[in-house]
Amino acid sequence: MLSPTRLPTPDTATDTFVDFRHVYLAYSESADFAVEDINLQTRHGEFIAIVGPSGCGKSTFMKLATGLKPPTRGKVCVDGAPVTGPLKFVGMAFQAPTLLPWRTTLDNVLLPLEIVEPYRSNFKRDKAQYTERALALLKTVGLDGYANKYPWQLSGGMQQRASICRALIHEPKMLLLDEPFGALDAFTREELWCVLRDLWTERRFNVILVTHDLREAAFLADTIYVMSKRPGRIVARKENPLPQPRDLEVTYTEPFTELVHELREHIGRVRST
Ligand SMILES: Nc1ncnc2c1ncn2[C@@H]1O[C@H](COP(=O)(O)OP(=O)(O)OP(=O)(O)O)[C@@H](O)[C@H]1O
């Protein structure tokens, strides 16, 4: 059974990476809370997934975790410090890859380094080193040989691979993924699950994945949080019992199917209330 929401106790105080304490957010003074009393702690290097019905506040949670929105009440800390504005050590990828059509794949991947300090100031000086890093990342996600192609010369799945490289080029401590594979066909999606699994296994950045796909959450995440309808609350926290790293074969096993069923039942309950 899914355990009801509670404050999980991290192994040690310093092991906590993302720390939400009684967090509420209303988008305006007159609006109701979009999310309410969010309590959540992640460990360093943990991969979490957030699932819930449409409009429950998953993207709002992301905005709070990255400092794009301050909480109306409560406290958000990341990596031991209160979040007081947009965090620099974050990489993001969304459902639409949003690559710039006039830039090559390589130049799209390099873009954050041209914008974000401290890379920006040294971009010209260090461009060769950054290019090497970008090419190595592109190779890792299977885009070897596509660096000089334009986005319109790539398939949807290839564009999303490039978008993940762009999110990781500045070696962020935290990767936020908002429905990153939602627009892809089932085969490509599963391929990209494996790409993400390999990158995370190698680099162990912190991941927050927002998804409607319960199989995706069950395949990738260490811990899965279920949110209720608006106002969004965390109504369940499920530690994934399946050992990491996982192969696609695991998706055909009973423990995986049981986990997905548990999550589905819970989503069914929050949708019907
Ligand atoms: N900028 C905004 N101004 C006012 N209300 C907003 C804003 N952004 C989101 N909301 C409201 O906050 C609530 C939560 O929205 P949010 O986008 O976080 O949900 P979500 O779970 O990510 O939705 P979906 O699954 O459909 O993407 C919704 O009721 C939405 O209408």
Automatic annotation (TrEMBL):
Coiled coil: none annotated. Residues 18-254 form the ABC transporter domain. InterPro entries: AAA+_ATPase, ABC_transporter-like_ATP-bd, ABC_transporter-like_CS, ABC_transporter_ATP-bind, P-loop_NTPase. It comes from the Bacteria. Pfam families: ABC_tran (PF00005). Keywords: ATP-binding, Cell membrane, Membrane, Nucleotide-binding, Transport. GO terms for molecular function: ATP binding; ATP hydrolysis activity. CDD domains: ABC_NrtD_SsuB_transporters (cd03293). Gene3D superfamilies: P-loop containing nucleotide triphosphate hydrolases (3.40.50.300). Belongs to the ABC transporter superfamily. This is Nitrate ABC transporter ATP-binding protein. The lineage of its organism: Bacteria, Pseudomonadati, Pseudomonadota, Betaproteobacteria, Burkholderiales.
